[in-house]
Amino acid sequence: MGNWLLNELPKWILFTAWLALNIALFVNTYLSYMADKYVYLRVLIGHGLPFARSSAYIINVNSMLILLPVCRNLISFLRGTCGCCTRVRRQLDRNIIVHRFLAYWICLLSIIHTGAHCYNFEHFVLAHHSSDGLVQTLSNLPDGPNPIKEPNSDAIKALFKFIPGVTGIVLVLALVLMVSSSTNFIRRSYFEVFWFTHHLFVIYYIAIVIHGMQGVVKAQTNIDVHDPNVCRDQYDGGWGTATCPIPTFEGSSGSSWKWVVGPFALYLLERCVRLYRSFQPVTIHKVVKHPSRTIELLLKKPGFHAEVGQYVFLHCPKISQLEWHPFTLTSCPEDENISIHLRIVGDWTSALAMACGVDSDQQPEKLPRLAIDGPFGTASEDVFNYPVVLLVGAGIGVTPFASVLKSIWYKYNDENVQLKLEKVYFYWICPDTMSFEWFADLLKSLERQMVAKGLPQFLDYNIYLTRGWDANQARNIVLHEEAVYDVVTNLRHKTHYGRPNWEQIFSAMAAAHPATKIGVFLCGPKVLSPTLRQLCNRHSSVDTAGARFYFNKENF
Amino acid sequence: MRQIEWSMWANEQALTSALLTFIGGVMGITQVFKNWGFGLYGIIISILVGLFEYPRGKRMKGTTNERMYQRFITVALSKLGFFSQNYFIRFILYILIGVPCCFQLPIVLGGICFFCTSIIYFVAAMKGESWKPAGLEKPDRQGSQVVAGVVSNPPPVPPPRLPEDVAQSVLQRQMSGRRI
Hints:
The complex is a heterodimer. In chain A, 47% of the residues lie in helices and 14% in strands. Chain A contains 20 helices and 14 strands. In chain A, strand 9 (388-394), helix 16 (399-413) and strand 10 (423-430) form a beta-alpha-beta unit. In chain A, helix 6 packs antiparallel against helix 9 (163-180) and helix 19 (502-512) packs parallel to helix 20. The two termini of chain A are 30 Å apart. The relative contact order of chain A is 0.09. By secondary structure, chain B is mostly helical. Helix content of chain B is 57%, strand content 0%. Chain B is built from 7 helices and no strands. Chain B is extended. Chain B starts with 5 loop residues before the first helix and ends with a helix.
């Protein structure tokens, strides 16, 4: 229980606070629509109204919240300002999960809201045919609570005569299209579909602001002279007298804009920053070709500073005016140039490689203009806050660790920097080292430097090949079993085969580092995350004598 | 980025539309709304569409993430031949499905979503896509041999490891020994 608290408590505190806020607002709005000024409206449409309105209220609140986690600059800024409180900061890494969770919540609330309003609307239409005299009278009042005036109107045709009806359809449609195009499968396989469809959010927000403005839901304005609880039975001739004057009604104007305007402005600002950055000059210093269709871009941008493990969005107007692609920086803050390694796997990267003249032999006359948005932070900045760190990179997930490892090495060599970090364990798990030769090269150069400085044990790294080996490699492995350097990677540490035994690694680490904070950093596919998270919780001890593991995950 | 296959999105959109129509249909058969028969239509058609769209088609390139237990329906659908494979058929089908939805309030949104589905399927059909059954071909063990030095098989034997207790002590010794 105690171990669990360490890693998961802040998350659940936030969740509980959010849930409490939602419930409180729901109940509060529900009760406010049970007030006397809505008595006649409830006579017409029953309890559908408070349900629809309270869910609408929470939709507003969550539509406000859902924009915040996708404001990258805002999150980077927050991360920078709460430098001391790691626990709070680590919650910021879950931004996309929060965004998705809120989206599901909005969908559920939209179903409740739309369903309730379907009932309400049908009730308004049917009110003209009601046998109840009060309902008839209310429906026929010239400025009465029933927005539908014609007795024999068709519900669907009538729907299109109201702004809330039309905007409601637009809202649901925008939401459905956004949802259907952002399922995991579509997002991973056809990112453009997801990305462009998601911009329907602009329509969504415009519609949500207009949706309530017509004031179709009308509250009674003269309850002080016309008490509905007293006068409701005197509708037949009693209304219009001194005791019960004719009830008057007025629609409320929408208040959604108050909720969404702030975050929407923030997001707009975010996009303006991106637009501004797209005009800032970036020069390509050098293009290096690596094996396995990987190229390295060395860029220069004045005034650009990035922390370790951050990523940027790259934009090339020559290829596409609209597309921005995220890439992890492989340079560290101490490096002179910004460097990015990219694999040529898709249309955009191929076009970029072509534009840089990688595929052809002759140099292009002019390198393409590039723009950079960022840098944006991820969890790896926290590496320097722990005395011991365990870095786990799986597959493509090793990229952020390139800059982390480089930076650790630079900082370690700098006399002026007091490094809190004492020990680095690095685990690299991949199917085969092909396509990551550049990373092995980097490790190799680090290793050479460490040997030259007489510090070969500075870094403890383990490489695990999971997919196996062919006959040639097997022969090589056997032949070079005794050699100093590994045959696959040419590194001093021998390559392992299979998957790491995390249980063993964690208990060994806990035993080796008592009373120490250990930061665990994972970057890679999802499947590993729960395993490591559980192990972190299991092997942490609450008392100060034992090791404590803090789990951090990078999102891709 | 790979070439976009619009039918994959249309498939998701069809399922979402079916879900909306189902919810609307359930509301529609309550006594509040006129013409409850349309509500019933909504329920039945959404279940049928759900079954029809549940199996994901085979992607042109790369692996297809099949939905859970989709294989049973895939087999049935692949027997329908042209009807299940051509996306122009689906384009027309969803327009036809959507029309009756426009006569009752709760399922009208489902109907409009079906029209969207049909538009996306039209785009897919224009791009020359068609539905192909996924996951029905026999897994051939001989087929996955070493191709040009790339190892595609997982190792048949587990990696040589020290016995559990020995490994543990070795690891501990290594970790406590190496400090910088």
